[in-house]
Amino acid sequence: MTNANLYALFQSRFPADLNKIFLQQEDGAGLTYGEMDRLSAELAAILTARAVRKGDRVLVQVEKSMTAVCLYLACLRIGAVYLPLNTAYTVKEVAYFIDNARPVLLIVAPEFVESYSVPGCTLDELAAAAGRCPPLTQIAEMAADDLAAILYTSGTTGRSKGAMLSHGNLASNALTLGKIWQWQQDDILLHALPIFHVHGLFVALHCALLGGSSVWFLPRLDVDALIRLLPRSTVLMGVPTFYSRLLEHPEFSGQICRNMRLFISGSAPLLNEIFHQFETVTGQCILERYGMTEAGMITSNPYDGARIAGTVGFPLPDVTVRIADGDGSPLPPGETGILEYNGPNLFQGYWEMPEKTREDMRADGFFISGDMAVADEDGRISIVGRAKDLIIAGGFNIYPKEIEAVIDQLPGVRESAVIGCPDPDLGEFVVAIVVREEDSSLTEPDILAQISGDLARFKQPRRIIFRDSLPRNTMGKVQKNILRNDLKGPVIRNSG
Ligand code: MLC
Ligand code: AMP
């Protein structure tokens, strides 16, 4: 049996010259393929010395860095399950993940090492120890369905669920994307996404690793840095905000994109207007693709062939997609339904929540995405809405239920409803409509101050609007579409 360990696959694709740059920063710092292989083997040895074993969860909440990438690779090497978290999460939010996933080791920022019940350390500590430790070069034997990572994704019930992704899931998606996007050894990827989500961690880095390519590794989105590096890059992956911000930059031009062969957008809908403006300025069409944490990428516009604004293209070659009615029966082209899919990239279920996994799956193995879609006669798919109550701001998913639960338990609040309002920069921003108890004089700042420790900053409402009651249908369900319509126009986002 061949080893299905994803890191073994990466190794098999390393460039012949291990002195080739893998990650590089603008300040001159970098890691060659050989250095990355060695550092990840040293970190693998350190993790093993700290009693991390195959199948154990390693929870990681650290700033983006080259060492953090090697830590991820080290976990793959020893068969540990990598559990990355958004650096914006509060201690209270992280405590939930610890309780749920029971990691054996936490790697967190120095100020949080003592905050939790599970032993923790910093990435710097690990890196310092790595230099003193002989590398563990052996790659753990893994089956295709052994877990590689758990990525938490909030649910419409407000409780985060850990999506279990196996070595086989990640490998299949990476191999497919590498092929359809024609990844090449001389590609240079411009990487400015966070590395705690599918987009920046798996889609971007795996394509580069399988291609044996080089990566400009930016700590975060800095549009000035993109402008400087675009002439020395060939591929950019970003959420739509990347493209709207580039277009606003006075120095953005077709000329600086002259070496670029591919601009990819995803994680949130790309506005038609941005697609067309981008084409006008650069002569290039952004390739929009669609995916989710539970499977990685699912559909993509073609590399060769028409990329059409407002569509997410066709199912990946090894993924089956159907647009279905509420019972899972396929609908004909032109009819809007729920997008369901199946393929080798589909996850292994939600960590220790079999009932949640069952809720989202059909008996024939298809996963119910919760996205509303329509296919044309050729099978080209457009995402036209969401059946799930979800806000996407700057590519981060925000589940209203989670925010409503926090606001509802505040003294003086009778009930609340959280919705997304259109935002030109981030796509959507969070607004809470709150009904106070009769004797309450709660104000917007009072509420914001009281929820600040419970919710990551990006989830906190940018506006709180008070109402005497919430519109409800005859079933008693809050009619959020009415709230969205009522608030069209008058809601101005607080800048802070
Ligand atoms: C930052 N802020 C956000 C935010 N990002 N608020 C809402 N939504 C966001 N996405 C807030 C901060 O809390 C802060 O608030 C203020 O904005 C400035 O913070 P910043 O860090 O300086 O922001 P900026 O660098 O401009 O970040 C915006 C961004 C970033 C869009 C570049 O959010 C980003 O990199 N997003 C990518 C997310 C991503 O990778 N998604 C992929 C998910 S995978 P204040 O008030 O404190 O100043 C997936 C599957 C798939 O969906 O298909 O890919
Ligand atoms: P996440 O759970 O963070 O992986 O986010 C997945 C969700 O992002 C999907 O279910 C979609 O709602 C949304 N999404 C991803 N890509 C696109 C896209 N190209 N267009 C519209 N929505 C998208």
Which descriptors would you attach to this protein?
binds adenosine monophosphate; binds malonyl-coenzyme A; GMP Synthetase, Chain A, domain 3; alpha/beta; 9-stranded mixed sheet; 496 residues; 14 helices; Rossmann fold; globular; 4-stranded parallel sheet; 29% helix; 3 domains; single chain
Explain how this protein is built.
This protein has helices at 6-12, 33-49, 66-78, 91-101, 123-130, 167-180, 198-211, 223-229, 240-248, 272-282, 354-359, 400-408, 444-451, 480-487, and strands at 21-24, 30-32, 57-61, 81-84, 105-108, 120-121, 147-153, 161-166, 188-191, 214-217, 235-238, 262-265, 287-292, 296-300, 314-315, 320-324, 337-342, 367-375, 381-386, 391-393, 396-398, 413-423, 427-436, 463-466. It is an alpha/beta fold. The protein folds into 3 domains: 6-10 and 24-166, 3-Layer(aba) Sandwich (Rossmann fold), CATH 3.40.50.12780; 221-386, ANL, N-terminal domain (Rossmann fold, 3-Layer(aba) Sandwich), CATH 3.40.50; 390-486, ANL, C-terminal domain (GMP Synthetase, Chain A, domain 3, 2-Layer Sandwich). The strands form 6 sheets. It has a 9-stranded mixed β-sheet with strand order 2-1-10-9-11-12-13-14-15. A 4-stranded parallel β-sheet has the order 4-3-5-6. A 4-stranded antiparallel β-sheet has the order 16-17-18-19, with no helix packed on it. The longest helix is centred in the N-terminal third of the chain and has 17 residues, at 33-49. 45% of the residues are buried. The protein binds malonyl-coenzyme A and adenosine monophosphate (AMP). Adenosine monophosphate is lined by residues 153, 198, 266-269, 288, 290-293, 312, 369, 371, 383, 386, 392, 397.
